[in-house]
Design brief:
It is built from 14 helices and 15 strands. The protein is of the alpha+beta class and about 425 residues long. The chain folds into 2 domains: about 180 residues, v583 fold, CATH 3.90.1700.10; about 210 residues, Enterococcus faecalis V583 domain (Enterococcus faecalis V583 fold).
């Protein structure tokens, strides 16, 4: 028996999962240190992107970033001591998703780092994500750790976090879904482009921001307006809270998570609970590089921002953000064609996330492993590109591997 032999049952299961996604109402309620916000988090835990691996299997930039996280947390004096603590199991590495959060690129989340706390007003389910490190090329989540990176992380924790938390609390929480809906109509796809949503967020908090002492207000304003990517992290935390609502729907073939480490790509599927179905790393489909870099410089060191694609955003809404052709490579026509292709592998269309270029059609939502396996079309994912030497060197579009989707479809068929 295959999944497709019970299409009515599968449709009903997928409809139940999708209704949970569609009715989700993510609200930013706080900004807290990870050790306070994440259930089970400890001071000697480093969270990373992707299905968890033994410490010995982490390589390249993700490994460097883990070591940097240990030193940043004050658990080791240097990377050599950090290496020793990790090899002995004194410090452990675990996956962000298992702690209710998602991580950008290498995904490093340590106990003292501030995380955005997003709560679904419908179910109370929470999603979390660290703050944006800024548009400097040297970032921990891009495999760079040095005194400047360490100082910036401390600045985010000690200065920005309390100010942003105060504004969020004074506002009574920030409903994120209305910002996301409007930003999609203003040229964002809420993954690689968050210019409109970042400004809409700033407008939403303006009254509470103006109530801060003037010097504090200027500091927070400077952080929020230093680039166009602040809202990526609220979008990631919101997507985590929304996607997790679909988990556990018996018989559903809808994907609830996609993530990759330095070594492999993995998915979770509603009907398979929190089990990771693993496969090879994704392939680069389009790319655009900052001056001085080429495809030979790319290193895949992880990523979980593709949780946005799981919810019908990012590459599943990229036809809204045709300006990304200058950032990702490719053309407007190829972006539109890629977006249309995603309708062939999804179980529904998101009624709130609409695409003006398609006559306000709902974005393709609910990646269906059975449809992926049948068509051979795999999810597109908008991503930033990291360098072997560390740092961001460009951006582009990845394609997920087919293997984990086909395997998930087989497992669901065997359990039906």
């Amino acid at each position: 028996m295959t999944v497709s032999e019970n299409p009515a049952d599968t449709r009903c299961s997928n409809d139940r999962a999708l209704q949970r996604l569609y009715t989700a109402d993510p609200v930013l309620v706080d900004v807290r240190p990870a050790i306070e916000a994440l259930p089970g988090m400890t001071r000697d835990t480093v969270l990373v992107s992707g299905p968890p691996l033994p410490w010995s299997e982490y390589t390249g930039g993700q490994r460097r970033a883990i070591l940097g996280g240990v030193v940043h947390e004050g658990l080791a004096a240097d990377s050599d001591e950090a290496e020793l603590l990790l090899s002995r199991g004194v410090v452990r590495v675990d996956g962000c998703h298992d702690f209710g959060c998602v991580g950008s690129v290498a995904g490093i989340t340590t106990a003292s780092m501030p995380v955005l706390v997003v709560e679904d007003a419908e179910s109370g389910h929470r999603g979390h994500c660290t703050l944006f490190e800024g548009e400097t090329r040297g970032r921990l989540n891009y495999g760079v750790f040095d005194p400047a990176v360490d100082a910036n992380l401390r600045y985010l924790a000690e200065v920005i976090r309390p100010l942003l938390a105060a504004v969020v609390r004074a506002s009574g929480g920030i409903p994120l879904k209305p910002i996301m809906e409007r930003a999609l109509r203003q040229g964002d796809e809420l993954h690689s482009r968050t210019a409109a949503s970042s400004l809409l967020f700033l407008r939403q908090i303006a009254p509470a921001l103006l109530d801060l002492p003037p010097a504090d207000a200027r500091v927070l304003m400077a952080y929020l307006t230093a680039g166009d990517y602040f809202f990526l992290r609220p979008a990631m935390a919101a997507s985590k809270s929304m996607a997790d609502r679909m988990s556990g729907v018996r018989g559903s073939t809808v994907v609830t998570a996609m993530a990759f480490s330095c070594k492999e790509f993995g998915i979770r599927v509603a009907g398979l609970g929190n089990r990771w179905i693993r496969g090879p790393l994704p392939n680069v489909e389009t790319s655009h590089f900052f001056p001085g870099f080429t495809r030979d410089d790319i290193e895949v060191m992880g990523g979980e921002s593709v949780i946005t694609e799981v919810c019908g955003l990012g590459a599943f809404a990229q036809a809204n953000a045709l300006s990304l052709q200058a950032y990702h490579g490719g053309s407007a026509d190829s972006m539109i064609d890629r977006n249309l292709q995603m309708y062939e592998i999804t179980a529904g269309e998101h009624p709130s996330f609409t695409l003006p270029v398609f006559g306000y059609r709902g974005s393709p939502a609910g990646i269906d492993v059975a449809k992926v396996a049948e068509t051979g079309i795999t999810p597109a994912m908008n991503v930033a590109l990291a360098a072997k030497s560390g740092g961001q060197i460009g951006a582009g579009s990845f394609r997920a591997p087919l293997a984990p989707f086909a395997r998930a479809a087989e497992l669901l068929a065997a359990s039906s």
